[in-house]
Amino acid sequence: MGIFDIFKGGKDKAAESGEAVKEQVQEQASAGATAPESPIRSSAEASNKFTEEAASATQAAADRLMADAKITPAAAPAPKPEAAHDKAPAHDKAPEARTYTVKSGDSLSAIARDELGDMGRWQELYELNKHTIGANPDMIQPGMKLKLP
User: Fold this and answer.
1) Which of 21, 67, 73, 107 has the fewest C-beta atoms under 10 angstroms from its C-beta?
2) HSE-up of 132 (CA within 13 Å, CB side)?
3) Residues 94-117: tens digit of each pLDDT
4) Which residues pair with 146 in a beta bridge?
5) Alpha-helix residue ranges (DSSP H) falling in the chain
6) Which of helix, strand or coil describes residue 34?
7) Mind spelling out the 3-state secondary structure of 100-124?
8) What is the band of 56 on the pLDDT scale with cuts at 50, 70, 90?
């Protein structure tokens, strides 16, 4: 017996067993027996049942949590109407503060006369710029930047 005879013998045995199974199925069909349920079908049914139970349990847990917390599903917030004062036009901005740079020979009264139109407003000019000028209103220096009212 050669090596190929062993393989040939294996093929013959497989063919014989296949024919035996085929005969058994035909006998059961002729006897009216029903085929056993496929394990694949029963596991799919079990999986569906499991999925349904899990979904039900999850929903029940979510309902309990919401009831405990007394939370209701949030509705989308309504858009706020824009107020007219929220967006001021660009031209309504406060004008930038005017400044004056002190020149040689200037005095607060001369600056008040030339810039503010009234020599007597020098005290107002001094109070507004006291932090820049210092304690003596007569000691303004050339180059100082003074704010104008």
Assistant:
1) 73
2) 19
3) 667 789 999 999 999 999 999 999
4) 100
5) 3-31, 39-69, 108-111, 122-128, 130-133
6) coil
7) EECCCCCCHHHHHHHHHCCHHHHHH
8) confident
